[in-house]
Amino acid sequence: MSEGQDSSPDLRTVPNASSGPDEATASAQTMGDATGPAGPSSQQKIERYLGTTLEGRYVVESLLGEGGMGVVYLGRHKLIDKRVAIKILRGDLVADHEMAERFLNEAKAASSIESPHIVDISDYGRLPDGAAFFVMEFLDGQSLSELMNQLRVVPVPRLLHIAKQIARGLAAAHERGIVHRDLKPDNVMLIARGEDKDFAKILDFGIAKVGGENARLTRAGSVFGTPHFMSPEQAAGIPVDQRTDIYSLGVILYEMASGKVPFDADNFMGILTQHMYKAPAPFRALVPQPQEVPPGLEAVVLKALSKKVELRYQTMDELFRDLEKVERGLVPDAVAEMMARSGGFNVPADYFRNPQRGQGGAAMLPATPFAPKRRGVLLGALIGAALLLGVVGALLIVSSMRASASATTTSSASGDPQPGASATDEALPVVAAKTQVTVTTDPVDATIALDDDASDAPRQQPRMVAVGAEETVTIRIERAGYKTARHVLDGKKIDANSPRVVIRLERLERDGSKPAPPSKGAAKPAPAPKPASTPSAAPAPAPTLTARPAWCAGDDWDPFLMKCNKKR
């Protein structure tokens, strides 16, 4: 189904009962399907390195963890007395040239990235018995999975701080042509660095794809990656690029925000099938609600979880910029895109069997195992529709909450002073809170700008415009091929229960203006002479928010809520 696999141990510090209070060791967590239990002979091979000195520099002190490819020990540099983690290739794999090459590939990949958010590998080599090893920094902290087990859901501000660091680290890896391919919470360590108690470090590049890696590092029939965090193309056995890490990060963000992974099943194949064909449930459809998730963050996560790679973020830098916008309280670019999608999560049954997506022109999947039933496709379509309504509804809920908060502030300001307030306090001017009005446009790619502010950059919808109760704000809406419109937002007329405005632009005629209607009784004008050159084509029609039924008049159609205000 996939390429070569190594589920290497994930370093997570826990107290060591046999050592002092300052000592820490690490636990390992691997896929049970990838490696069977070690026999006595394997245990003896593991223990034989304890107490030895590697290349005269590194003293092996204790066992930290064991994975499918390597064994990790706590070591200490003999000369500078610095703790390090030492990963040694498993004894039963020493003679396997392919696995030894992949093992050293991990060291070379991680050490070449040079990012503060990637584990630092300082040395590697071979032992007298032929076993390869490398030395990396010892991380004294906890894994992201341990943090999630403690909190169940990670508060949004902390989630964004951690997610941005992971995106930065992987962006640096992708610039070097390195794709992690096994990103999961166990492979992210959180350590204290300065005042930052959640400094993220990405581990385990054991199955990373480096540059033009080819089939000689591929082991047919072996398990590849971790099923809950696999991208659809990984599950289908299709060659992957950096966008597979974007999907895996989307799964991590979903679990951090909701306390559960988006897809789960009783067996390995069930999970992979859901990754390929099932739409993730929006946060607001989860019962009970895990926490209040901003609509912008929900849109970012759902875009990262798009089944089709061309619909996801194309780079980690794009994802990072949207996370920054959410953190600053701005509307990320993903919101408009997710609102405009219609069935964007519905994947054709043959999408992952397209011969063009495989190698050598051959289909990557058999026809039977992954072909979903018609009922499942219908369910996916319904969930996709619920997704769009969920994002739109979330925007309305947030706007309503802000309006309610504004009303509460104004009410408190106009009431009697509280007991104990001084005359000076009563004389202070009260600054009324502003209402955030959501402005959307039809067509959806028109730009919105503050007409009174020359420095304001035009932005696409949806845009939040702050309007005070006693003020007016004029906005300008523009789009090529349409008449420029100006709309006045009057704070006195804004509906606090639904602070939103939909601006519909009027299309220009081919010559830029509408012809004047002929007067009654006037003779028909002579046909205009045919121009010598063919006139330029009319502007391409702009996309609309959604298809309007033929029976619904233009003024009755609400593109923001995607419904007709008039019954049929």
Care to describe what's here?
By secondary structure, this protein is of the alpha+beta class. Helices cover 28% and strands 18% of the residues. Among the domains are: 12-137, 2-Layer Sandwich (Phosphorylase Kinase, domain 1), CATH 3.30.200.20; 226-364 and 371-394, Orthogonal Bundle (Transferase(Phosphotransferase), domain 1), CATH 1.10.510.10; 434-510 and 549-568, Sandwich (Immunoglobulin-like), CATH 2.60.40. It is built from twelve helices and 22 strands. It has a six-stranded antiparallel β-sheet, with helices on one face.
| Poorly predicted ranges | 1-40, 212-223, 354-377, 407-431, 533-537, 542-546
Strand content: 15-25%
- The CATH architecture of the domain at 226-364 and 371-394 can be named as Orthogonal Bundle
Q: In the CATH scheme, what's the topology name of the domain at 226-364 and 371-394?
A: Transferase(Phosphotransferase), domain 1
The helical percent reads 25-40%
Largest sheet, spatial ordering of strands: 3-4-5-6-8-7
Task: Compute the average pLDDT.
Answer: 73
Write down the CATH class of the domain at 226-364 and 371-394: Mainly Alpha
Q: Total helix count? A: 12
Characterize the overall form. Answer: elongated
Rg from C-alpha positions? 30 Å
CA(first)-CA(last) distance: 52 Å
CATH superfamily of the domain at 226-364 and 371-394: Transferase(Phosphotransferase) domain 1
What structural category characterises the helix and strand content? alpha+beta
Q: The biggest beta sheet, please? A: 6 strands, antiparallel
